[in-house]
Known about the structure:
430 residues; alpha/beta; Rossmann fold; pyruvate-formate lyase- activating enzyme; CATH 2.40.50.140; 3 domains; six-stranded parallel β-sheet; globular
Amino acid sequence: MKVSVITLGCKVNQYESQAMLSQLVTAGFTACDSEEESDVVLINSCTVTAMSDHKVRQTLHRARRKNPTAVVVLTGCMPQAFPEAAEGLHDADIVLGNSNRSSLLPDILKYQSSRQRIVDIVPHEKKTGFESLSVNNFFERTRAFIKIEDGCNRFCSYCIIPYARGRVRSKPIEELKNEIREIAANGYREIVLTGINLSAYGQDIGLHLCDAVEAACAPDSVERVRLGSLEPEQLSEPVIARLSRQKKLCPQFHLSLQSGCDETLRRMNRHYDTQEYRTIVKNLRAAFTNAAITTDMMVGFPGETEEEFQKSLAFAKEIGFAKVHVFAYSRRPGTAANDSPDQVVQAVKEQRSHLLIEATQETKQAFFQKQVGLTESILFERECAKGVYEGYTNNYTPVKASSGKNLCGQIISARITEALSDFCIAEICG
C-alpha cells in the first residue's frame, strides 16, 4: 500500500505529517511522492485564515479528481476547529482531528474493510497530555524539526488556534532528549525546535524553553539549533542571558508582533506593548552578534484606523526587521474579533498590505546589505542550478554560492559579496 502526504500550514504541521507518515510506514505502508499513484492520500490541514480553509477544499477536490479510487484522509486543524464544516467535505473518506492521531491507522484499516465513511473528531480535553510523536528521519537531509509544544492559552481576539489545538502541552524532557539523540545519530546538522506557542514550553511540566534549547545543543554532532516563532513577552533579560550561553543557538529570532500600534495590540488581546517589544529586540541584539529579527504583521484588524496603521508602519521601519510576513486580517468564526462591528473593507486591507510589504522589503534589503563583507558559516541545502548551491547562514540569511564540488549538507565558510532582493551572493573561502 502506497501513501502520500500533503501538508498545508506551519512547521508544526510538517513535523506531524512526518510523524504520521512514519507511523504508516512502520505498519507496512510505502511512502510515495505521487498523489496519482497512492492508495492513501493524507491531507494535513491548516485553518489559520479563511484562505487556509479555501486551500483545504481545493486540495481535497484535486486529490479526489486525480485519484478517484484512493482513500482520502483529511486531518489537522481545520476539522478540529470546524468539525461540522469538515464533515460536509465529502471528498474526504476519513475525517480526523488533531487530538487523536493514534486513530489514523485503525481508521484507515476500518475504512478499507467496510468502505463506510468515517468522521472521527475528538474534542480537546483540558487535562490531555502531550501527544507522543517522534520523527528521526525527514525528507530534508540537513535540518530536522522537532515539535516540543502544542496548544495555546493566550486567546488573542483574532485567533482560532486555541480551539484547533487546545491548551498548552509540552514534550517531556527525557522524551525530547531521546528524540534529539536519534536525530543526531542520523546525521542532521541543524535542529529546529517548533511549537504552536513555543515560548510556553514547560509551563505545564515545571520546565522552561531554555531547558529544551540546552538539551538540543548537548549532542556534539549537532552544530546548530534554531527556534521557531516566539511570543516576545517571554523573553526577559534573564532568559535572553541564559539562551546566549548556548553557542550553538542561531542568532535568528522570529518574534510575533502583529501590530506596531499599542491601541491595536490591546484590541488584539496581545500581552505586550511596543515599548516592551522594542526593549526585547534591543536586548537580543546586544546578546547575539548580528542577530536577525523577523516577524509577522497583520493589517486591517477591526477598528484599525489610518492613524493606527501609520503607527504600525513606522514601528516596522524603526525595528528594521530582516524579514516580515505581512497578512490581512481574516475573520474566524468563534473568535472575539469576528463579531466586531468595525470591520475594515478589503480594498483598504489590500492597500495597507502593499504599503507594509514595500516598507519591510526595504528593511530586508538594508539587513542583507549589512551582511556584505562578512565571512559566515553556511549550511548548504540544495543545488538550485548547475554548480550553484543554496544555503543559510547562522542568522538565516539565504545565500547562493558557486562551486565545482557538491556542497549539499556541508557547513562551509563563505564571504558574502553581494546583496540581491531575495538572497545574498557568497564566495567559498579557501
